[in-house]
């Protein structure tokens, strides 16, 4: 018998970084020199688990309980408060499920919930209650979802979402996109991901090779909410994506205590553009159960957009939108009264 020495499998740097993420908020607060009492009451088995990559946490300001990056991920007792109008499926995802893992809300495009895994657990996440175990297309190797897309010639764009699709291995991404690109009427592939921002190590040679080989036109919509998220590592990752021919857009969520002021949003738009990304959407908060403490009133949101229009060229002003269950598209909110002088509120 011939003996073969097979090297054991070794995780890639991004997989190691993901495995080493904080999963206990007490440990994060300790390293940030903050008092654990900030957690109020944190259950031993929380409804929505805690996860923050260490590289993302390194961008937080030690000793600052109001750090805008920390606020996005820190679980608070307010999450347990029931608020009228806030529920588990605020954007009507469940009514849009046509096959396991496939959502079809809007004409011309369909969305694949590729995985329930994320590199970071944002406390405002609108899919934190989504039944991923019942809607995982990997169980059927995508067959039913792909058959649905193949049968509908109007679907020209497929959106890979989740969770976060870039938590999948390169091999799974290649297998999926090879099948999608074999469907003649699928012309565009859109990837919704937070990993280039929270885990830039994921943008490695293997992922870039996959993107370079995808035959469909590829758009990546990243998710940054605050300029402090855009550090040198993120800029390097975004530059690599641009070099691979990927069109880069950003979508943000307007969040109380994070980016609900003029300077934060203005700096975010300019930081994104300097990194090769166009601001795309600024979402009003989806009214997900447990997120009411993040809500910014519509009149404030309209005033913020008006102030940005006074300070930035139009292509750097994201569209303020709300997603409503059953609507045929995301609803743009009209601009408010333009102030004579933009409010110079202090940036977080």
Which descriptors would you attach to this protein?
11 helices; 10 strands; TIM Barrel; 2 domains; ten-stranded mixed sheet; 348 residues; globular; alpha/beta
Distance between termini?
66 Å
Q: How many domain regions?
A: 2
**How large is the share of residues in beta strands?**
5-15%
Helix count from the secondary structure assignment:
11
Number of strands: 10
Main pleated-sheet profile: 10 strands, mixed
* Secondary-structure element pattern, one letter each: HHHHEEEHEHEHHEHEHEHEE
Order of strands side by side in the largest beta sheet? 1-2-3-4-5-6-7-8-9-10
Helix content estimate: 25-40%
CATH architectural arrangement of the largest domain: Alpha-Beta Barrel
**Averaged pLDDT, please?**
90
Shape: globular
Point out poorly predicted stretches: 336-346
Radius of gyration: 20 Å
Structural class: alpha/beta
In CATH, the topology of the largest domain is named: TIM Barrel
CATH class of the largest domain: Alpha Beta
Describe this structure in words.
It contains eleven helices and ten strands. The protein has helices spanning 13-19, 25-31, 54-57, 68-73, 143-151, 170-181, 195-198, 205-213, 232-243, 262-274, 298-311, and strands at 97-99, 102-103, 109-113, 157-161, 188-192, 217-222, 247-253, 278-283, 319-322, 331-332. Strands 1-2-3-4-5-6-7-8-9-10 form a ten-stranded mixed sheet. It is globular, with a radius of gyration of 20 Å. 38% of the residues are buried.
């Amino acid at each position: 018998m011939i003996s073969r020495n097979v090297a054991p499998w070794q995780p890639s740097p991004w997989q190691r970084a993901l495995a080493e993420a904080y999963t206990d908020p007490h440990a994060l607060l300790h390293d940030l020199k903050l008092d654990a009492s900030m957690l109020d009451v944190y259950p031993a088995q929380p409804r929505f688990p805690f996860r923050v990559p260490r590289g993302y946490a390194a961008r937080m300001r030690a000793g600052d309980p109001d750090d805008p990056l920390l606020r996005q991920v820190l679980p608070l007792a307010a999450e347990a408060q029931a608020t009228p109008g806030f529920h588990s499926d605020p954007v009507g995802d469940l009514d849009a499920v046509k096959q396991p893992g496939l959502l079809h809300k809007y004409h011309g495009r369909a969305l694949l919930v590729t995985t329930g895994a994320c590199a970071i657990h944002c406390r405002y996440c609108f899919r934190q209650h989504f039944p991923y175990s019942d809607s995982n297309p990997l169980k059927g190797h995508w067959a039913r979802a792909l058959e649905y897309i193949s049968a509908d010639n109007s679907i020209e764009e497929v959106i890979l979402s989740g969770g976060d699709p870039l938590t999948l291995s390169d091999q799974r991404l290649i297998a999926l996109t090879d099948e999608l690109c074999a469907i003649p009427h699928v012309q565009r592939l859109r990837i919704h991901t937070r990993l280039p921002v929270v885990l830039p190590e994921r943008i490695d040679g293997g992922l870039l090779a996959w993107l370079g080989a995808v035959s469909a036109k590829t758009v990546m919509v990243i998710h940054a909410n605050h300029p402090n998220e855009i550090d040198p590592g993120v800029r390097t990752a975004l530059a690599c994506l641009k070099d691979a021919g990927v069109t880069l857009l950003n979508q943000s969520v307007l969040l109380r205590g994070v980016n609900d002021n003029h300077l934060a949003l203005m700096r975010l738009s300019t930081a994104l553009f300097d990194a090769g990304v166009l601001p795309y959407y600024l979402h009003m908060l989806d009214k997900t159960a447990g997120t009411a403490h993040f809500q910014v009133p519509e009149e404030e949101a309209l005033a913020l957009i008006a102030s940005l229009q006074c300070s930035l060229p139009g292509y750097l002003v994201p569209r303020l939108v709300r997603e409503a269950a059953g609507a045929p598209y995301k609803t743009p909110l009209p601009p408010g009264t333009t102030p004579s002088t933009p409010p110079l509120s202090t940036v977080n």
